[in-house]
Amino acid sequence: MDLTIEAISFLIATAFVAGSIDALAGGGGLLTIPALMSVGIPPVAAIATNKLQGMFGTGSAVIAYWRADRIDFRAFAIPAAGAFLGSLAGAFAVQRIDSGFLAAVVPVLLVAMALYYLLAPPMGDVDRHARLGRAGLSLVCAAIGFYDGFFGPGTGSFLTTALVALGGLGLVRAIANTKFINFATNVAGLSAMILGGKVLWMLGFGMAVANIAGNQLGAWFAIRHSGRGARPLLVIMSIALTIKLLADPKNPLWTIVKSGF
Predict the structure, then answer these.
(1) In the chain, what is the greatest distance between 2 CA atoms, to the nearest angstrom?
(2) Does 87 map to a domain?
(3) What pLDDT is attached to residue 5?
(4) Is residue 218 one of the residues assigned to a domain?
(5) Using alpha carbons only, how large is the chain's radius of gyration in Å?
(6) Are 225 and 33 in contact (CB under 8 A)?
(7) What is the pLDDT of residue 168?
(8) CB-based contacts of 219, cutoff 8 Å, min separation 6
(9) Which domain holds residue 193?
(10) Average of pLDDT values for 16-23?
(11) Per-residue CA distances from 36 to 30, 43, 123, 178, 226 (Å)
(12) CB 160 within 8 A of CB 178
């Protein structure tokens, strides 16, 4: 599809901001998916293109955290494998859902995720006793992986919360290992979307460059400042973009609402 220079510039700038936030706390997709849809890209193509740019950005964050010796690849290989399989299943499932339904449900999911970020309690940076073993944590990661393949925004936050609350990790270690697991879900989801022919390649690569730069900035800030400070900006921007989606009177959600009254 043809996009204006203004629309492409807007998407690339959004990818940079989303990458910075994603490396800090997860949830960059809360910005990129509604941004992609706001310029007229269909929901599944938006999710697919977001997977492409997000995979490169998350991969760059993995490298940054690995260089800082914050990722335990051996300990989280099995949870990452579970997340990979879950994401693969979710990405195949979403391609079989009616696009009109997705266009209606995406704003609702985005508002729910913004509320989660607004209301979720802060997490500490001290390791604690793990509540789940590797097998249990792998099942949780598989479920979160399915969500990531099906939709995506907030996956990083869900994984970070699981690693802190159930895996016993401190915040920065949880964020770092989340990037490793999230990279696995992005690879799986993107693979399924490629097979379905849903990816907008040139746009995705352009956004990927910006997302990589943003992830590097966010990872640098998280390592030095304990990963705090991104939530208010994430909530404000995601709600603003959701309002933009709902401002379109042709959004299928309004048809559903009207049919209910």
Answers:
(1) 56
(2) yes
(3) 93
(4) yes
(5) 17
(6) no
(7) 84
(8) 23, 60, 61, 64, 65, 68, 179
(9) 7-254
(10) 84
(11) 11, 8, 31, 24, 30
(12) yes
